[in-house]
Design brief:
Layout: E1 6-30, E2 38-56, E3 59-74, E4 80-94, E5 102-119, E6 122-146, E7 152-179, E8 189-205, E9 208-224, E10 229-244, E11 253-268, E12 277-304, E13 307-336, E14 341-348, E15 352-359, E16 362-377, E17 382-396, E18 404-419, E19 424-456, E20 465-470, H1 476-482, H2 487-494, E21 505-510
Antiparallel strand pairs: 1-6, 2-3, 3-4, 5-6, 7-12, 8-9, 9-10, 11-12, 13-19, 14-16, 15-16, 16-17, 18-19, 20-21
Length: 512
């Protein structure tokens, strides 16, 4: 018959889906009439932007826009020109089940892009990008903590873990009208926009999480289309958002993130009639996973003094949130552009990656980022080059647990530069490095118990005590199971408290 078990549910944040889907880019593109002919291609890239994501039943729908942008030199004035082509995309991911309280993370990744000019006004562009999606769901994990049946002996273990108290996600928008700085020319066309969202501080109150941070914008624009004059502007927009997160309070530990889902930048005219304003609309997603520490008791083994038991086991992972690391790191690297340069127009980042792991008392971050450089050569013509840059950074982890998992991320907060020689540029990158550190413990636990009560265990009833010669290191649990008694009875009879036999010795085994 099946035996009753007492269970407790532990809420965990489980990754229920993680997948990438590739989208092709195949484009025969002709320049618009207002664009001058191509003399030389500087850079061709696809910029996929996710604008919407939604879970409906067992489907995750992701929509966005892929923007293919070309930077090139015109034939007449050898100035930087820009043209672009946008196409919408839509992706449907199939989830195994309908997730409960899901938090969705998405990112776009450029796989490759090939671009060639088949004529001064026509381009052949082929490539691919991938949309990667991850869904974390608050899931209840059933744990057996007691078997309240007669004659059942249980081995129990107490485990420290983090219980997920809330998962929440909220989409919101930030709109600002920004002024182009004094001394800068009016804007006639926006060439490139970088938008980065950073969480700087969090505060928990009853059932709510307050996120404070900033959105960083860097804009490259044309100040004079006729002359191809390029200028940059940088802005920091403060952001504050309240996220409804049932279950959180002042004691909760939180993993909070902000993602940029989409943005739009438009040139506006000020009161004097100059095009010196930039209207910015940014769509953001704030995500919160909140935890609280708890102690969980689990049954790891059991036997009956009356009947043979049938036990089913399962391996359970218990995670405990230890720390959320947020470090700022300045990394410098010199890039050889290959030609003499007189001026740098702009330096920016488009690709970055990061991993982190515990190693020799440190959380070691290893990553890379690219530096895209647009500059003016000694002949007065613009040049473009880019370089992937590797880096390492160590966060002190002395005296802390070794067996940890690190969920890492990075943000290239800013790139600055200085010309170090005829061909050299020193790139100074401010990197925001983050890692959510969990300890993980895997335990085998009892999940199902049954017995055939028509077949009682055979017992030696010829004596009330049995002499047993135990070896060093032998477990009292194993001895008690063999003789259909309890660990406590053996310990009490022999006046010992250990769970293992420290030395070879004779034990008195009580037989009821």
């Amino acid at each position: 018959m099946d035996y009753n078990v007492s269970q407790e549910e532990l809420a965990i944040g489980k990754t229920v889906f993680e997948e990438c889907q590739e989208q092709p880019v195949d484009l025969d593109f002709s320049l618009p009439d207002y664009c001058p002919d191509i003399q030389r291609i500087l850079k061709c890239q696809v910029y996929p932007r996710i604008t919407m994501r939604n879970i409906s039943g067992d489907r995750l729908e992701v929509e966005g826009i892929s923007n293919v942008k070309l930077l090139y030199l015109d034939e007449e004035k050898r100035k930087v020109r820009c043209c672009e082509h946008s196409d919408p995309f839509s992706i449907s991911f199939h989830l195994k089940d309908t997730p409960q309280n899901p938090v969705v993370f998405t990112k776009a990744r450029v796989d490759y892009i090939n671009c060639r000019a088949v004529s001064p006004r026509k381009l052949d562009i082929h490539g691919a990008f991938s949309i990667c999606a991850k869904v974390v769901s608050k899931t209840n994990q059933a744990i057996v903590y007691d078997i309240p049946e007669k004659g059942i002996q249980q081995k129990k273990q107490s485990i420290s873990a983090s219980r997920v108290v809330s998962t929440a996600q909220q989409v919101f928008s930030v709109s600002e009208v920004l002024e182009i700085g004094q001394g800068k020319p009016e804007a006639e066309s926006v060439i490139r926009t970088d938008v980065t969202a950073l969480v700087q501080d969090t505060k928990t109150v009853a059932n709510k999480m307050i996120l404070k941070g900033e959105v960083l914008l860097k804009i490259l624009y044309v100040g004079n289309l006729e002359e191809g004059e390029l200028e940059t502007m940088e802005y920091s927009v403060p952001v504050s958002q309240i996220v409804d997160a049932d279950g959180v309070d002042e004691t909760s530990m939180c993993d909070a993130k902000m993602e940029v889902l989409g943005y739009e930048v438009q040139i506006r005219t000020d009161s004097s009639g100059e095009d010196s304003l930039l209207a910015v609309d940014i769509k953001l997603a704030a995500s919160v996973i909140a935890y609280t520490d708890t102690e969980i008791q689990i049954v790891t083994d059991a036997y009956s003094t009356e009947y043979d038991l049938n036990l089913d086991y399962q391996n359970l992972d218990f995670d405990r949130l230890l720390e959320s690391i947020k470090d700022s790191y300045i990394h410098k690297n010199t890039v050889d552009v290959g030609v003499n340069i007189t001026r740098v127009i702009d330096v920016w980042n488009e690709i970055s990656s990061i991993t982190a792991q515990q190693e020799n008392g440190q959380i070691l971050f290893k990553g890379k980022y690219n530096a895209c450089i647009l500059a003016i050569g000694s002949d007065g013509e613009p040049i473009y080059t880019e370089k992937m840059i590797d880096f390492e950074y160590a966060h002190d982890w002395t005296g802390k647990p070794d067996s940890v998992t690190c969920d890492s991320s990075m943000t290239v907060v800013s790139l600055s530069y200085r010309i170090t020689g005829a061909n050299g540029i020193e790139v100074r990158a401010e990197l925001g490095l983050s890692a959510v550190i969990h300890s993980r413990r895997t335990c085998r636990a009892v999940c199902y118990v049954s017995a055939d009560e028509s077949k009682p265990r055979a017992k030696d009833s010829s004596a009330s005590l049995i002499l047993y010669y135990a070896d060093e290191g032998e477990k009292i649990w194993d001895i008690a199971r063999r003789y259909c008694t309890s660990v406590e009875a053996i310990q009490q009879e022999n006046d010992i408290t250990e769970e293992e036999i420290p030395n070879k010795s004779m034990l008195l085994i009580p037989v009821s």
